[in-house]
Hints:
Layout: E1 15-19, H1 28-41, E2 46-50, H2 57-72, E3 81-83, H3 92-110, E4 116-120, H4 127-134, E5 138-144, H5 147-150, E6 154-156, E7 162-165, H6 167-183, E8 188-194, H7 201-218, E9 221-222, H8 231-234, H9 246-250, H10 256-273
Parallel strand pairs: 1-4, 1-5, 2-3, 2-4, 5-8, 8-9
Antiparallel strand pairs: 6-7
Helix pairs in contact: 1-10, 4-6
Amino acid sequence: MSITSGKPAENNTSKVIVLGNEKGGTGKTTLAIHLLLGLQAKGMRVAAIDLDGRVAGFSKFLKNREIWAQNSRQNIYTPPYFTVSPSQNKDTVLREQEDFAAFAGAVEKLEHISDYLILDLPSGDTYLSRLAHSMADILITPLNDGFLDVNVLGDVDEDFAVRHINPYGKYVLDCLTRRKNIDGKGFTWLLVKNRVSSLGAKHKIKVDMALSNLAQKLGAKIASNIGDRVIFRELYAMGLSVFDVLDKQTGVKATASHNEAKKEVMDLIEYIDSK
Length: 275
Ligand SMILES: Nc1ncnc2c1ncn2[C@@H]1O[C@H](COP(=O)(O)OP(=O)(O)OP(=O)(O)O)[C@@H](O)[C@H]1O
Ligand SMILES: [Mg+2]
């Protein structure tokens, strides 16, 4: 999908991966970072847009990475990126025009120089966020492994049958309809359980049953899980990740858990590629 023209993509435009969830703190930024660097490790050209310009966690990571590259003189890849901050204009029409122009301007500069464009969204329901959801080729919604997160999509009864679709579920379906009206194709919606631990097996079974029924009702797919691992957060301030050479660059000794972390991200990328 070409964002600036609103028409189906030409062959040389990037695939747009959007990290979205109306609920905060589910791992959007963490997954945006790791998908970006995982795709890069596979030899893809990647670029990023941080649409959460107020917090700017994705941009800060990428800035930290540029600083690390400069100071360490290590030849690490620093992807091109833009930060889009929401307009503060009090007039709604002008505010949306300004938001659109800032977003479209960033996309225009990146969509022809990357194979994948990764968009990190803020939580909440904003004009920019809906626009980005509607422009996805792949929408990834990270959810923590519990009903507090799963219920963002909808409610289930005691047999886990879907009773009600909640605002974020409707929000995505609205964006999908809007997108289908533009290019007739829509986007693929992937649900990713993030911060999954090995504890609480009985609870997990219930959560999985609810999630599976909600996914079916919403036309979403459940992708592979991402575990709760310190390595997914401990290198943030350096702008590095488990995909960088750990011992040499960071003083962090590579462990079996790091290999598992890399594999989880690569499995997710493989799943994305298969869609
Ligand atoms: N797989 C993981 N393992 C360990 N920690 C994680 C993992 N995923 C996320 N975290 C941590 O959880 C917290 C929330 O993650 P993150 O900021 O990525 O969520 P978010 O959805 O982008 O939040 P927001 O809605 O505020 O933008 C952060 O402290 C992050 O380091
Ligand atoms: Mg975030």
